[in-house]
Amino acid sequence: DSGVTQTPKHLITATGQRVTLRCSPRSGDLSVYWYQQSLDQGLQFLIQYYNGEERAKGNILERFSAQQFPDLHSELNLSSLELGDSALYFCASSVDLGHTGELFFGEGSRLTVL
Amino acid sequence: EDQVTQSPEALRLQEGESSSLNCSYTVSGLRGLFWYRQDPGKGPEFLFTLYSAGEEKEKERLKATLTKKESFLHITAPKPEDSATYLCAVQARTGANNLFFGTGTRLTVIP
């Protein structure tokens, strides 16, 4: 158990809909990262927050947004969903900005868009 | 642009049959190279960090090595419980400090 909690574990929805994925980092970790994992592209970095502030942005679509709250949990909002958004979405956390590369991953939220 | 290529895509080994996984990388100034293990339906689990060419790290049956262009994950006398996907990632010294992952090597160890 990594200590990172993600909900929901599974989500099935329709195209055009909006969903919210939630992540609680390990106790004491200030950084939260969101990654997307699809079969053909591997793990793709979406966005990082550190202590409530956006720190780095990857290939995150404009339809997607995220935030980190004062209690350090984070939410990833996906809107106007398309079939191609079906993937595993992982949250990870680290105690610092991630310079050691030691990230602790949750078990992921599997999104299926029909 | 940062690039990580892992080979082979899949590898089947008999129990006890040692082998190596390769990770070739291109990055504008390497801060670190990382190995993760991912079991089916789970999130990746951190294994090693390597910072400079010549560095080696070991953990049980796994040993990771680093050169200026690639890293190897050597698996000695593997057991069925070593079956997993092994992911390599790099982090650049400048710019965003996120990890850039390869697509992994899926290892199956047959009893």
Task: Report what the structure shows.
The complex is a heterodimer of chains A (114) and B (111). Chain A is mainly beta and 114 residues long. Chain A has strands at residues 5-7, 10-13, 19-24, 31-38, 42-50, 53-57, 64-68, 74-78, 87-94, 104-105, 109-113. Helices cover 0% and strands 53% of the residues of chain A. In chain A, the strands form two sheets. In chain A, strands 2, 4, 5, 6, 9, 10 and 11 form a seven-stranded mixed beta sheet that branches. Chain A is globular. The mean pLDDT of chain A is 94. Chain B is mainly β and 111 residues long. Chain B has no helices and eleven strands. Chain B has strands at 3-7, 10-14, 19-26, 30-38, 45-50, 56-59, 62-66, 70-75, 84-92, 100-101, 105-110. In chain B, strands 2, 4, 5, 9, 10 and 11 form a six-stranded mixed beta sheet that branches. Chain B is globular and about 45 Å long. The chains are: A mainly beta (114), B mainly beta (111). The interface between A and B is medium-sized, with 28 and 23 residues.
Keywords for this entry:
heterodimer, A: 114 residues, globular, B: six-stranded mixed beta sheet, 11 strands
Could you give the topology of this structure?
The complex is a heterodimer of chains A (114) and B (111).
Chain A: E1 5-7, E2 10-13, E3 19-24, E4 31-38, E5 42-50, E6 53-57, E7 64-68, E8 74-78, E9 87-94, E10 104-105, E11 109-113
Parallel strand pairs in A: 2-11
Antiparallel strand pairs in A: 1-3, 3-8, 4-5, 4-9, 5-6, 7-8, 9-10, 9-11
Chain B: E1 3-7, E2 10-14, E3 19-26, E4 30-38, E5 45-50, E6 56-59, E7 62-66, E8 70-75, E9 84-92, E10 100-101, E11 105-110
Parallel strand pairs in B: 2-11
Antiparallel strand pairs in B: 1-3, 3-8, 4-5, 4-9, 6-7, 7-8, 9-10, 9-11
